[in-house]
Design brief:
Blueprint lengths: L3 H7 L1 H6 L13 E8 L3 H14 L3 E8 L6 H12 L6 E5 L15 H7 L6 H6 L10 H4 L3 E2 L2 E2 L1 E7 L3 E4 L12 H11 L2 H13 L9 E2 L4 E2 L3 H19 L3 H5 L20 E4 L9 E10 L6 H10 L3 H4 L17 E2 L2 H8 L5 H9 L3 E3 L3 H18 L7 H20 L1
Parallel strand pairs: 1-2, 1-3, 11-13
Antiparallel strand pairs: 3-11, 4-5, 6-11, 6-12, 7-10, 8-9
Helix pairs in contact: 1-3, 8-10, 9-10, 10-16, 10-17, 14-15, 16-17
């Protein structure tokens, strides 16, 4: 799957051209940092590390690839042991749990808990002293995902923001609705079959984030609402039933536009399309983290680690132009940058520029998806597939049972 790796590959050409000249320092004077990188990011991070070294010849960056696949479980366990004993890497640049990340072994399966436990370094002082930080335009709603008790421990690098995409001529405007269920109701009542197809696609591809934000780690509170879950499941069943009643080509029509970017193939270059970011069932327009970086609290070179991590967030590496960048992740519809200026640079002269930036600007919240997010999404997909398969919808009591099971999963996460 092409995700963050493409995002990084997209930014290399221009960055390389901007390398600075500098005299090489001796090996004795080099500062060395160890960087743990998700395996599928390795090649691209390695190239960016070389570019960083051109600008900072006194720094040596040692990359350590870490696979999330089950066969590397022993290596992950050993790294966890090293971290607990005060050893381990200085910096982490890792994949976050996303749609495809189900059976994988994550070094930090719960990033929020890792922040809470003191694994990562507080970055506030580095950010305050960083003169270049003021040029990094990351919305507070996105940055907040990497905070605990008001302190910044993690920096998101890329996000996903599911969007509802319709043809401008016959769209249904649900952009001001207060919840996902309100959006679904408005589209059902409109009788617009194309909009109905798009909403069905949106729910299918974005099932794992439809009930976020479901946890308050600082307040140790489960926000997942069982009543809202049942309401959402019933609304999804009604959407599926209405689609099932369509006949002929309309019923066979399958959108490739709306929802999670993992499934959407778009470079925002099509004319006459409308983009809307929808609230979740919990009532906020929520993005979720695809990749992130964090400095180890045990590192002896925290300043250099922070500087290298911030390097990934600069507008030059977060933006893109199809005439300058090759295989931009945005261009093929995968991850989105967190730096708005970089995103705007890429979207320059794209027909969808204003609509997509408006969606980006409406982000109110950002989350790390959890195992419970996956469980909640799986049950919603079961609701949908049951209807598509011609079976009767789940009963109210069955949906309540699902809600109880999911709530317990969220409770367990807080107790871990």
């Amino acid at each position: 799957m092409k995700k963050f790796s493409l995002f990084l590959a997209a930014v290399l050409t221009v960055t390389m051209l901007g390398g600075c000249n500098g005299s090489q320092s001796s090996d004795l004077n080099e500062k060395v940092i160890r960087v743990c990188v998700s395996n599928y990011l390795y090649a691209e991070v390695e190239t960016i590390a070389q570019i960083y070294r051109e600008k900072n010849p006194g720094v040596k960056i040692q990359l350590e690839a870490l696979s999330e696949e089950s066969e590397d479980e022993a290596k992950i366990k050993q790294m966890k042991t090293d971290i607990m004993s005060g050893k381990g890497p200085d910096l982490f640049i890792l994949q976050s749990r996303g749609y495809e990340a189900y059976e994988r072994n994550f070094l930090f399966p719960n990033v929020n808990k890792a922040m809470e436990s003191g694994v990562f370094c507080n970055l506030d002082d580095f950010i305050k002293k960083d003169k270049l930080w003021e040029n990094i335009n990351i919305p507070k709603g996105i940055l907040k995902v990497g905070t605990y008790n008001g302190r910044q421990y993690v920096l998101p690098i890329t996000i996903d923001l599911p969007m509802l995409v319709q043809e401008e001529a016959d769209k249904v405007d649900v952009s001001e609705e207060e919840s996902l269920m309100d959006c679904m109701k408005a589209i059902r009542e409109s009788g617009n079959q194309k909009a109905l197809n798009e909403m069905d696609r949106y729910c299918f591809t974005s099932a794992f984030q439809l009930l976020e934000n479901a946890l308050d780690y600082e307040g140790q509170e489960v926000l997942f609402d069982k009543t809202i879950y049942v309401e959402l499941a019933n609304s999804l069943a009604e959407i599926s039933l209405q689609r099932a009643e369509q006949e002929g080509d309309e019923h066979a029509e399958s959108s490739q536009r709306s929802g999670s970017s993992q499934f959407v193939k778009s470079n925002f270059g099509e004319e006459n399309l409308d983009y809307q970011v929808l609230p979740t069932a919990m009532g906020k327009r929520t993005a979720y983290v695809q990749s992130y970086g964090a400095v180890s609290s045990n590192s002896k070179e925290k300043k250099i680690c922070y500087d290298f991590l911030r390097f990934f967030l600069d507008t030059e590496r977060q933006g893109g132009d199809s005439t300058k960048y090759y295989n931009s992740s945005i261009e093929v519809g995968t991850d989105y940058p967190v730096n708005r200026d970089g995103f705007e640079s890429y979207l320059n002269e794209k027909p969808a520029k204003e609509e997509v930036l408006n969606c980006f600007d409406r982000i109110e919240d950002c989350v790390f998806l959890s195992q419970a997010s996956r469980a909640a999404g799986d049950k919603l997909l079961e609701v949908r597939s049951r209807i598509i398969g011609g079976e009767s919808p789940y009963s109210e009591s069955e949906l309540k049972t699902f809600a109880d099971e999911i709530y317990k999963k969220y409770e367990m996460i807080l107790k871990e």
